[in-house]
Design brief:
With 133 residues, the chain is mostly helical. It has helices at 2-16, 42-49, 55-69, 74-80, 86-99, 102-112, 118-130; strands at 27-29, 32-34. It has a two-stranded antiparallel sheet. It is globular.
């Protein structure tokens, strides 16, 4: 559970260290914001972790963050594995499977042991297989 503290610290640092910048047009599609600069990824991480947003919006933010941030998205995805929403847990499993690595694999296996939803269990199993060393 040490990673929960690390995620909180990471999100706090990312959001508090952001420097103001002039507004820049971004591409928008049905999935929402499509950031084109690394510093634009911080809102995606925050959105994925924001329980006040709808689950589908959080899942889209997590998928986009995972695709763009790579290994640095692992801590956010790990936290999302414990989310209440099935769709968000599935997105977290897919992101961690794509990211790979021993920490991502360990988080997937740990969640697989307690996951009650069959669809999420299936996503977790695929992610574990995908992340095999």
């Amino acid at each position: 559970m040490w990673y929960l503290g690390a995620v909180f610290l990471l999100v706090t640092l990312l959001t508090s260290c952001a420097t103001p910048r002039p507004a820049k047009p971004t591409r928008v599609d049905a999935g929402g914001l499509e950031p084109t600069r690394p510093e634009d990824l911080t809102p995606l991480a925050a959105a994925a972790l924001d329980p006040s947003l709808p689950a589908d919006a959080r899942a889209r933010a997590l998928r986009s963050f995972g695709e763009k941030a790579g290994i640095s998205a692992a801590s956010v995805a790990t936290v999302c594995l414990a989310a209440e929403a099935v769709e968000l847990r599935q997105a977290a499993a897919e992101a961690l499977g794509a990211i790979g690595g021993k920490d991502a694999r360990a988080a997937l296996i740990a969640r697989l042991e307690v996951e009650p939803d069959p669809q999420v269990r299936e996503a977790l199993e695929r992610a574990v297989a995908e992340s095999e060393p």
